[in-house]
Structures are given as structure tokens and as C-alpha cells.
From TrEMBL:
This is DDE domain protein. Pfam families: DDE_Tnp_IS240 (PF13610). Residues 3-91 form the DDE domain. InterPro entries: DDE_dom, IS_Transposase.
Amino acid sequence: MADKWHLDEVALAMNGQKYWLWRAVDSNGDVLDTLVILGAINRPKIGSFRKLFKAFGQPRVVVTDKLRSYGGALKNLAPGIEHCSHKGINN
């Protein structure tokens, strides 16, 4: 298990409705979790972070895009995790 995780989301349109696919991948390319949310994504689900931490422990570093709510959620749940956020850095 790698100690660096990449978190990303993408919008999908299915049957005229907008869904968001959210996934967490470690630096080895192993998918840790996926989540599909109907409607607007205004913040990552804190419950999803708790589920990931329980299953895999806490990573040393989390890399995300510029969605600001990732930082807030991570700061509340695990303040010791290093958070890198930059457009395109998690690709």
C-alpha cells in the first residue's frame, strides 16, 4: 500500500442527469474507492474519507485538484496529512 493518494472527480451525464464519479487511487495505480453522486458536487463526502482511513489507514500525502473542499475535509479529519493541490498535478 502506497502512502500517497490521488483524489479526483469527473462529471458524467447519464439519461439526462448529471452524476459525479469520485475516486481515490494510490501512487501504485490501485483504485482504493469509487463513489457516484447524483447532482452537484459541493464537497467530498466526509464519510468516504472515514471509510478509506478505516480500510487503508491514513496516507502521508493526498494529491487533489483545485476543488477547495478537499482541503477543508482533510483538515477536519486528519490534520497531519500533507495536502498538495494544483490544477493537473493529480493526473
